[in-house]
Amino acid sequence: TSIEEEVEIECFDGTHKIILDTAVPLRKSDGSIGGAITINQDITERKQAEQTQRLNSERMQVMLKLNQMTDVTHQQLTDYALEEAVRITQSEIGYLAFLNDDETVLSMHAWSKQAMKECAILDKPIQYVVTGTGLMGEAVRQRRPVITNDYAAPNPAKKGHPQGHVPVRRHMNVPVFAGQHIVLVAGVGNKEGEYDNSDAEQLTLLMEGMWRLIERKQAEEEI
Hints:
Radius of gyration: 22 Å
Largest sheet: 6 strands, antiparallel
């Protein structure tokens, strides 16, 4: 019987690959094992495809649940979406902030439960001026997802944070657009491994879906 083992290796360019090592035993005429042949197969793309399929499935389940949450407040809806965003991206903390009409002020709407538990700041700011924010505002300034996998490294975009703020090791945030206008910023942090474009895509799609539901609820309430 062959023995299979998946091994993750780091390449010279810093990228990672997943190799499937298969050891096939060589049997002698008398039935005893006289060695083995090892076969190495790069299964990185296959594993990535499986991961993407799993995440797509989980995100669709979340969207189905959100669509069924007809008798909840906007806060309850966004809280659920945020907690699921943290889970799907394998993060520890997350936040959600809405943007004003001229995209100059971020209004903090929700922190994930774990972020609130770890944060020791008693007077948490409710609003942040975009020009005065650090990495939280980068998704607005650059108008695209921003990934920071080494938060401790020097970065001119960082503005520091108050004493008692939840420790951040990795950070990713994404803007959500309504037409050409950014309406909200969603961020997650402290994933064990590195954030990548797949994480940014999943977070963006989930938050875009949530925003469409909010718009629909607002339209129904106006009617």
